[in-house]
Amino acid sequence: MIYDVIELTKKLISFPSVTPKDEGALVFLSEQLSALGFKCHLLEFGEDSEKVLNLFARLGTNAPHLCYAGHTDVVPTGPIEAWKFNPFDPQIEDGILYGRGASDMKGSVAAFIAAISEYLENNTSQGSISLLITGDEEGSAINGSVKVLEWMKENNHIPDVALIGEPTNPDYLGQEIKIGRRGSLTGILKVKGKQGHVAYQHLADNPMPRLINMLCALNEFCFDEGSEFFPPTNLEITTIDVGNTADNVIPESGKAHFNIRFNDLWSGKTLGRKIHDILKNTGHSYELDLIYGSESFLSKPGTWSDIVKTAVKDITNYTPEFTTNGGTSDARFISKYCPVVEFGGINKTIHQINENASIKDLEDLTKIFKRVIELIPEIKPS
Ligand SMILES: [Zn+2]
């Protein structure tokens, strides 16, 4: 049985699975995979209203074991009337398929399953192939991949390598393979003073110059120049809030938020200490709350990333670059268990109104995934 990538993508888009809702998408997938011989496990995690459905499906029990990871939840549509077509009623126009999830990432999930079906038509599978499909990637990610991975460990399903099918290419298929991501740290800086009349400034204490001074010190600080596989660590001030509505009042206090995306030269903790050093050097007193998001991670280029690179090159004729840019993904959880790389479609329209993917790209992505599956025997079992 051969699945058509376009038909499968359209069917998946038709389930309005706005995170963390599933609306039947994963049951549908498990039926399709069961028909190909996969052993499917629908795994529900979380309490009551926060329950999230996930799917783990595996074909074969031998090594090497390749796991494809992805998600079927999507971000909200925004105003539906602004869309060319209903976001859950996928339509094709001029070779472009429109619908929520077309590129992030129902098209990719469909491409991988279509690739398996084509491969199995003429081959018996080597090693084993599995899919970890979560319904909680776009949301809090608490009851998704993290818990499925724990379940996989308990049940002896940890793969030798993983491929995340998230859309990694900015402009064209074959541009980038992601081998890691930066970490994230948020800071909330508060400065206190004494409220008063602007004309009686000697009776008040304006905290604003100190806040500005400290923000300048943070903003100007050069954390590093980047590392072998990562861009430089970068701090962005995201908001400054005083809440003062009167022009004749010196405010009591001020606060600012900033977010840092950091490379592998730092951990959240060492970076937190550095922030305190920078602030202390200004000589001002302050309060600082640090919210630790995620640590950076890296799957060093090696056999696995080279296999994916070869597959991409064989089909597209482009040599993809290994990068670590962009926001975070579930690769941060999987990287704790095995080498993981990310390669999928084009990310130009993800999360936007009129999200889309071209038919050609979906077909080529299917070919790339099929090539990866053909190369499974070259994976080194861990
Ligand atoms: Zn995604």
Characterize the structure shown.
The protein is an alpha+beta fold. It has helices at 5-13, 25-35, 106-122, 145-154, 208-220, 268-281, 303-316, 331-334, 359-374; strands at residues 39-45, 52-59, 65-71, 91-93, 96-98, 128-134, 161-164, 176-178, 180-181, 183-192, 196-197, 234-241, 249-250, 253-262, 287-294, 297-298, 321-323, 340-342, 356-358. The protein has 2 domains: 5-181 and 297-378, Aminopeptidase (3-Layer(aba) Sandwich), CATH 3.40.630.10; 183-294, 2-Layer Sandwich (Alpha-Beta Plaits), CATH 3.30.70.360. 28% of the residues lie in helices and 25% in strands. The chain has a 6-stranded mixed sheet, sandwiched between helices. Strands 12-14-10-15 form a 4-stranded antiparallel sheet, with helices on one face. Helix 7 (303-316) packs across helix 9. The longest helix is centred in the first third of the chain and has 17 residues, at 106-122. The radius of gyration is 24 Å and the shape is elongated. 44% of the residues are buried. The mean pLDDT is 95. Zinc ion binds at residues 71, 104-105, 137, 166.
List key phrases describing it.
Aminopeptidase, four-stranded antiparallel beta sheet, six-stranded mixed beta sheet, alpha+beta, 382 residues, binds zinc ion, elongated, 2 domains, Alpha-Beta Plaits, 25% strand, 9 helices
Weakly predicted, low-confidence segments: none
**Total domain units:** 2
- Total beta strand runs: 19
Terminal Cα separation, in Å?
A: 32 Å
Average pLDDT number: 95
Major sheet summary line: 6 strands, mixed
Q: Given the structure, what is the number of helices?
A: 9
The CATH homologous superfamily of the largest domain corresponds to Zn peptidases
The CATH class label of the largest domain is Alpha Beta
Oligomer: single chain
Broad structural category: alpha+beta
Q: Kindly state the percentage of residues in helix.
A: 25-40%
Q: Outline, from the CA principal axes?
A: elongated
Order of helices and strands: HHEEEEEHEHEEEEEHEEEHEEHEHEEH
